Prior knowledge:
This is Release factor glutamine methyltransferase. It is an enzyme of class 2 (transferase). S-adenosyl-L-methionine binds at residues 112-116, 135, 163, 178. Its EC number is 2.1.1.297. By secondary structure, the chain is of the alpha/beta class. It folds into two domains: 4-60, Helicase, Ruva Protein, domain 3; 83-270, Rossmann fold, CATH 3.40.50.150. It is built from eleven helices and nine strands. It has a seven-stranded mixed β-sheet with strand order 5-4-3-6-7-9-8, with helices on both faces. A two-stranded antiparallel ribbon has the order 1-2. The chain is elongated, with a radius of gyration of 21 Å. Bound molecules: glutamine. The site of glutamine has 9 residues, from loops.
Amino acid sequence: MRTIHASLQEAEDSIGKVDARVLVCEVLGVDRAFLATNPFHILTETQDARIDMLVAQRLMGHPVAYLVGRREFYGRDFAVDGHVLIPRPDTETLVEAALKRMAGACSVLDLGTGSGAIAVTLACERPEARVTAVEKDSQTLQVARSNGETLAPGRIEWLEGSWFAPVAGRRFDVIVSNPPYVAAKDPHLGQGDLRFEPEGALTDGSEDGLGSVRAIVVAARDYLVPGGWLLLEHGYDQAEAVAKLLEEAGFESRESIRDLAGIPRVAVGRLPA
Ligand code: GLN
């Protein structure tokens, strides 16, 4: 029989302190303070075996968020599984930028919602806003819907389809998206945690990674009101290219916003009023 202390020690040696603590807490259903104050607590055989299994999976590269089934984003816990991209802190920059441009009963469209992290956060932070979220993969949409039911019940219109297809003929005050933008041959795709995330959420197969961004920018004008805003997350080296696309598509004012690491991460365009 192992104690918390022994189990933690072994897990830490193979996957590091932070991940080891998260996984042991998850299996025991306790918080980190419990681990520190009860080092000689004896684990059941089931708990012991479950910890070993999770540590082995983590060692193979499975992201912690998938192993525990959730990830915190903008102060809320989102359920995640292998059908959705794990919400990133970078995307909180996109959310902040959108919130600044949302007032009163405005309408917002989130394209390729994934886990629903963006749409749900906007709905929670702006109770008067009307939020619509589109996702082309039905299993992904199920995860998003379920996050919506938990965190913002009845607040979001969930639509299945590709980009603007399900909102034909409609116009919004704000359109946001964190589309796939990793270049098809980017070596990171085959490394680390990314190997376990849905490939289609990371790359659309285009050589420069901008295939989806281009499609969204070109069409967005027809789905925005005059003076409407388009906000897009993009890769670390794509700010200039996206700004150019926005300019070509008639977005008269443009802005580039940096993430917490100081990297240009979000492009904002506004249509003439
Ligand atoms: N920021 C993600 C990554 O680099 C990519 C997300 C995306 O393509 N939208 O892992």
